[in-house]
Design brief:
alpha+beta, 5S rRNA binding, three-stranded antiparallel sheet, Ribosomal_uL18_bac/plant/anim, two-stranded parallel ribbon, globular, ribosomal protein
C-alpha cells in the first residue's frame, strides 16, 4: 500500500540522471530535474553527469521546484529505496541516496520504507 500520494522516482542511464516526483493518484509528474537540462549538465565535466555530485544537484533543483510547483507535497514524498536500488543496481545506490539527502537538506520530507518500518 502507498504511504504517500507523492512518490520520488530516480532514473539513470549511462549518460544522464533524472529524478521526479509523481502525484500517484493522478499519475502526473509535479516536479522534475535532470542532467539532460543544459543549466544542470553544464555544471559538470563531460561524461560526469551520473555521479554523486550530479545526483546532489538534481536533488537540490528538484527540491526547489517541488516547493514552488507543488506545495501539497509538504506532507512528504515516498520512495522505496530497496526497490529502486534493486531495479537500478547496487552501483546506483550512492546516487539515489545523494538525491534523497539533498531533498532532505532542502527541507523536503522524504519518507523511506525504512523510516516507515521504524514507526510501526
Amino acid at each position: 500500500m502507498m504511504k504517500s500520494k507523492y512518490v520520488l522516482r530516480v532514473f539513470l542511464s549511462a549518460k544522464h540522471m533524472t529524478a521526479n516526483v509523481v502525484e500517484w493518484n493522478e499519475r502526473r509528474v509535479v516536479a522534475e530535474a535532470s542532467t539532460v537540462e543544459h543549466a544542470i549538465s553544464n555544471a559538470f565535466e563531460w561524461g560526469r553527469s551520473c555521479n554523486e555530485k550530479a545526483a546532489e544537484s538534481i536533488g537540490e533543483v528538484l527540491a526547489m521546484r517541488l516547493k514552488t510547483e507543488e506545495p501539497g507535497a509538504r506532507s512528504g514524498v515516498h520512495i522505496d529505496v530497496e526497490n529502486e536500488i534493486k531495479k537500478k543496481g547496487v552501483e546506483c545506490k550512492e546516487g539515489i541516496w545523494a538525491v534523497i539527502n539533498a531533498l532532505r537538506n532542502r527541507g523536503v520530507k522524504v519518507i523511506t520504507d525504512e523510516d516507515h518500518n521504524k514507526g510501526s
